[in-house]
């Protein structure tokens, strides 16, 4: 059952490509206007690459939806110009609590330190995020969204792809140098290429319900093992905007999906959990899940991203977050290739970095699922033993796993130049830069990540020598003033320290002293030109 | 002073837990119990300290007592 009405409706419009005698050719066609496709298209367009975005629907606001957006994702959305409306609407949170029966086992804080622009998490209905992204896309002149344009055929060539697109006016062909398949878990393009999608399927069924009510629960993630209102199973509660609460109840492997969604079954369960019946049911669904991925994300000129490339269980909020991080990784690489600034092999680093990230996410969400939904009586005994011991011992507390929440991946990648010196601090080679509050030349406050924008950047702490030339250089103390000292602390910075930052804000290289040749060589690596002399 | 260490020692406890789950996957309940018994003996010998073993037994029993029906 899906009772959610569509909230935003878009019109089909005939486009010029449909009236051509031979197919139009575009640098990039993105398929799928969900969060991942929209982010990829916006990022490419911001980088000056014209994009066509195709979607088979003409509305958003239906279907099962992600609600938790993590700090790193918000930083990416900020670069894409949509974090502000999301933060304004979303519920900001950082605390999680884990209960067994009625007792609090432990609480965790996902962002215990200050000095970051973005919070640990916001909860936001996916349709609000998609709406903000569509509005942003509409403001970009080189991004064209075509609603009710369904890709029904795909022909691969060495230098591109020809897509057959079906519309209410009939079908037309369009050529693309590159195609990004962001068409979701049931990806049509994956099917057209006949690619296997392998991994582990889980038998447990879960009930997901969005409930509208005035609740006095705090904006925290609450998870119960064996709660008194749902004996022997697990439950999860999240606050969303508009007085909507997300409730997730484990039903077990034998539950009848259809019967469980019937109001006469759902309402008593929720009444028992909430302790009253002063609520309205907004949406309910029963789901199972898989943890699986494509073996390779890049197939010639077709690149898969988001759920089309990999799927995880919902525990840990790693679906939408990892998909948007795919977009962040892919867009700058495709843009450089499209502009002829990088070797085409740069795309291989997308496959390497993001398939490793997918493995990490699949690993975490699989281990969480093992703990939350034991499959045998022995697994259940291990789980209950860990829960029981968690009341007495720190070690068992750390084993209790109600979902390990999404963190960005640290890439071990040929694009990084290995450290020659030892570094402390919270900046790590291959990881996204930690944010820090700075001031610009005019004394105005600016966040470090804002100042980087999406450009390859050198951060340099002066030491009396010439700062590196020829690249986009920000000098600490001049262009960016580290008044709080948090930059120095987080980057282990001293006079001479120099950092090369990728367009996706991951750290590519760092040195105690700026050596122009080393910086140039590290920058070449970022274009997939390692070993090639300038 | 306690000799039994109850602080978390694995850098990644989730992986350690998963290794236990994996070892039991596909086993009958009886085979699982047999595997666990062997595992306990192996680990007890590895500890090799009667006082630590005794403390571990006490802790395990204590946490079971609180899980008895009605003791919730």
UniProtKB/TrEMBL annotation, chain A:
Domain of life: Bacteria
Keyword match Cytoplasm: no
Co-factor requirement: FAD
Domain FAD-binding, residue spans: 27-361
Annotated region (Disordered), positions in chain: 408-437
Record keywords, A-Z: FAD, Flavoprotein
Annotated signal peptide: none
Transmembrane segments: none
GO molecular-function terms, A-Z: FAD binding; oxidoreductase activity, acting on paired donors, with incorporation or reduction of molecular oxygen, NAD(P)H as one donor, and incorporation of one atom of oxygen
Pfam families referenced in this protein's UniProt entry, alphabetically: FAD_binding_3
Name of the protein described by the UniProt record: FAD-dependent oxidoreductase
Lineage: Bacteria, Pseudomonadati, Pseudomonadota, Alphaproteobacteria, Hyphomicrobiales
From TrEMBL, chain B:
InterPro entries, sorted: DUF2783
Domain of life: Bacteria
Entry protein name: DUF2783 domain-containing protein
Source species of the chain: Microvirga aerilata
């Amino acid at each position: 059952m899906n009772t959610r009405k569509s909230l935003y409706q878009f019109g089909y419009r005939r486009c010029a490509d449909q009236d051509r005698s031979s197919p139009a050719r575009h640098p990039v066609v993105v398929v799928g206007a969900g969060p991942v496709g929209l982010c990829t298209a916006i990022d490419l367009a911001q980088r000056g690459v014209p994009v066509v975005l195709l979607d088979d629907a003409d509305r958003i606001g239906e279907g099962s939806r992600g609600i938790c957006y993590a700090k790193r994702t918000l930083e990416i959305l900020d670069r894409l110009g949509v974090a502000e409306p999301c933060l304004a609407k979303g519920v900001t949170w950082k605390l999680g609590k884990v209960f067994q029966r009625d007792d609090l086992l432990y609480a965790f804080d996902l962002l215990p330190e200050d000095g970051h622009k973005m919070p640990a998490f916001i909860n936001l209905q996916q349709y609000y995020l998609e709406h903000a992204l569509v509005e942003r896309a509409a403001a970009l002149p080189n991004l064209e969204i075509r609603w009710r344009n369904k890709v029904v055929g795909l022909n691969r060539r060495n230098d591109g792809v020809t897509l057959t697109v079906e519309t209410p006016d009939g079908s037309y062909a369009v050529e693309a140098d590159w195609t990004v398949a962001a068409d979701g878990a049931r990806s049509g393009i994956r099917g057209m290429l006949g690619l296997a999608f392998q991994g582990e399927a889980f038998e447990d069924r879960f009930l997901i319900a969005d409930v509208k009510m005035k609740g006095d629960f705090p904006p925290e993630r609450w998870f119960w093992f064996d709660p008194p209102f749902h004996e022997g199973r697990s439950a999860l509660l999240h606050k969303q905007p508009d007085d909507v609460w997300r409730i997730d109840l484990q039903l077990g492997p034998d539950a009848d999906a259809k019967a469980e969604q019937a109001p006469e079954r759902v309402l008593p369960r929720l009444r028992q959990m909430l302790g009253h019946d002063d609520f309205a049911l907004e949406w309910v669904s029963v789901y199972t899940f898989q943890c699986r991925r494509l073996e390779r994300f890049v197939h010639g000129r077709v690149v898969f991203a988001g759920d089309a490339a990999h799927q995880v269980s919902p525990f840990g909020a790693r679906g939408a977050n990892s998909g948007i991080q795919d977009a962040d990784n892919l867009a700058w690489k495709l843009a450089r290739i499209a502009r002829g600034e990088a070797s085409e092999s740069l795309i291989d680093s997308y496959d390497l970095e993001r398939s490793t990230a997918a493995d990490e996410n699949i690993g975490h969400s699989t281990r969480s699922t093992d703990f939350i939904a034991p499959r045998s009586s022995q697994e259940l005994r291990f789980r209950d033993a860990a829960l029981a011991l968690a009341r007495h011992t720190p070690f068992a507390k750390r084993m209790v796993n109600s979902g390990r929440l999404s963190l960005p991946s640290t890439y071990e990648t040929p694009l990084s130049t290995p450290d020659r010196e030892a570094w402390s601090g919270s900046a790590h080679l291959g990881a996204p830069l930690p944010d820090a509050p700075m001031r610009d030349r005019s004394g105005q406050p600016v966040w470090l990540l804002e100042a980087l924008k999406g450009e390859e950047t050198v951060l340099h702490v002066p030491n009396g020598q010439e700062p590196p030339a020829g690249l986009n250089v920000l000098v600490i103390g001049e262009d960016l003033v580290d008044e709080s000292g948090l930059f120095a602390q987080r980057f282990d910075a001293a006079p001479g320290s120099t950092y090369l930052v990728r367009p996706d804000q991951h750290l590519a290289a760092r040195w105690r002293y700026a050596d122009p040749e080393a910086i140039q060589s590290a920058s070449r690596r970022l274009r997939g030109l390692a070993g090639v002399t300038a | 002073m306690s000799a039994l260490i109850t602080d978390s020692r694995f850098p990644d406890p989730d992986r350690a837990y998963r290794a236990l789950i994996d070892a039991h996957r596909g086993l009958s309940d009886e085979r699982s119990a047999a595997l666990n018994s062997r595992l306990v003996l192996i680990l007890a010998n590895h500890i090799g300290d009667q006082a630590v073993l005794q403390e571990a037994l006490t802790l395990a029993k204590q946490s079971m007592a609180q899980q008895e029906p009605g003791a919730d």
